[in-house]
Amino acid sequence: MKFKYVIVGAGLAGLTLAERIANVLNEKVLIIEKRGHIGGNVYDSYNEDGILIHNYGPHIFHTNDREVYLYLSNFTKWNDFWHRVLTYVDGNLVPMPITVETINKLYNLNLDCSQVEKFLQERAEQIDEVKTSRDVALSKVGKDIYEKIFETYTKKQWGLDPGELDTSVISRIPVRLNRDTRYFADKYQGMPGHGYTRMCENMIANKNIKIMLNTNYKEIIDQLHYETLFYTGPTDEFYDYKHGKLSYRSIQFQFETLDKNEFQEAPVVNYPNDYDYTRITEFKKLTWQDHKKTTICKEFPCSDGEPYYPFPTKDCKAMFALYEEDMKKEKNVVFLGRLAEYRYYNMDAVVRRALDVFGCRCQAPN
Question: pTM of whole model > 0.90?
C-alpha cells in the first residue's frame, strides 16, 4: 500500500493531523491504531444503562488558545461547563484548587483575600532551591496543607514520595488568592455537546482518511510505502526498547451504576487521605445527561496497564534523552504527543502541537 502520509495512533494528535492532511492538502492518509476505537484516551461511550461515560477517566476541555478552540468547534458544539472539584479532608469537602474558600472551609475561618495571602505567607516554608514537588508545595502552602491535601494523594497517584518527583507534578495545581472555585481558569471551557467520540468521528469524516483499528503498526509497516510517518505511540517501543523501558503510571477504572439520581456534590471528588482510590467521577455531572440512574468511576493508580502518565523523575528523563538523540536522526519520522514525547499534554496542547507540526512538515499545494 502506498500513502504519502501514515499516522500511528488515532488520538487527538493523530486525528488532527489526518484531518488537516485530508481537508487542506486533499491527500490520502492512513491511520493505524492498536485499540478498537478512535479518540485515544478521550474516547467516550454509552454503557449498558445508556449513560455516557468517559472510558479512560474524566476529560474536560479548557484552553486559552482561541485558534485551537475555533478549530475543534468545527467538529462539535459545546456545552458550557465550568469544572469544579471537591476534596475530602478531615471529614469535610473543600474546593480544589486552593482558593480563599478552601482555606476558610479547611480551618473554619472567614478570611478575605488579603488575609488568606498573609495566612499562607506565614505558613510557607523558605526553600533555597525548589527541586521537587514537595518543595513546591511547602514553599507555597506550608507543611499542614501539604500533608492534608498533597502528600498522600501524590503518593497514591505516583507510588512515590513527592520529594522524589519533578516540580512539574504539583506546579500544575494553582493556588489562587481569590474566591474562584472553578478548577480551570481558562477563557474557553466546555464539553462536546454529543461527546468526544462524536467530535472525533466528525474530524475524520473525509474519504481521504483510511483507518486500521486493532492493528499493531509493526506488523504492517514494512508493507507500506510512505514519505512521512507521524508517530504518536511510545518512543521506547518504536526503538524496540534499545535504551530500556520507559516508566509510566497507569490507572485501573472501577465503574459502578447506581439506582439513584445523584451520588456526590461535584463532578469529581478527590480523596487524598482516605481509601485506595484517588478520586470518584460522576459522569452525568459532566455531560448534563438526564437519566434516572447514575454511573460513577473510582480510579486506582497502578504500575501496570495502559501507559497514561510519563514518570517525572530524573532517571526517566535521562533515559528519554537517549531516545531523543535517536529521534533527531530520523529524516521521515515525526514524533509527537504524550507518549512519543514522553511529556504530559492537556487536550488543547496536543491539538496545538499537531497543528504546528502540520504547518511545519506538510506543504500545501500552490
Answer: yes
